[in-house]
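User: Could you check the structure of this?
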Amino acid sequence: MARSRKNDLVVLPTARAKYGVVLLSHGSPDPRARLANDLLSRRVGHRLNAAVSLASLDHETARLDGAVAHLQENGIDDVIVVPLLLNVAYHATSDVPAATTRVKISYPGIKLRVARPVGADPILLKGLDSVLKASGFRPNTETGVVLASAGSGFESARARHAALALEWRSHGWGGSAVAFASGPGPRVADAVNTLRESSFEPLERILVTPFVIAPGVLSQRIAKEAREVGAIPVTSTLHSTDAAVDVVCRRVEAALLEDPKPSVKLSR
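Assistant: Sure, the predicted structure tokens are below.
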């Protein structure tokens, strides 16, 4: 325990983390994505009192084995991997298991558990609302919203995002639609036109919001497509929202409850 001479305040030492978390993203060549995920990791670590490291499946040099090695060097041998994937598709069902299997072989002394991907969790709709609020927009019947997803060839993943977009309207928006940046449509232009044609009353504005964790090439592409059809692009992403932190922490806690370690205590 240390005492600050200037203000005579007692400063208690931070409790040592008893387990580690790896936030495993798809990866991006845009440096802003790394900074955004770093902010998310710091907030998750503070909430859970866990040591948090970042890794990616693609684009970046920080791989899962490197993140696990870093945690092991700091005395952490109990690790939960949380895939920061909003689509439960090929990356989640193939790449993540392959990467974790390789790490388990290379680091037999590490207890490695894989949490469920973040996925299309309804809690993230609150995150999208907070992103729009920060941009000056609140739910009202004269505003339509487009949930612009990365897209996937997996029909089940696309259906989850379409259902999430439909649910978003119940938050008080005048209309909602889904768009996909890759794979089968609808594209942003299709979603915007659908809202314009299907609304009983003309919408004053249509907001196109990227349903992605961190900014980068994808969010820029979505914004460009929104501008081309006269919609309002929202460039902020979910990484800074309380909702994103909540969902990641829930995934970690669920993994711990499914396969607990006696030394780990969950805290809110």
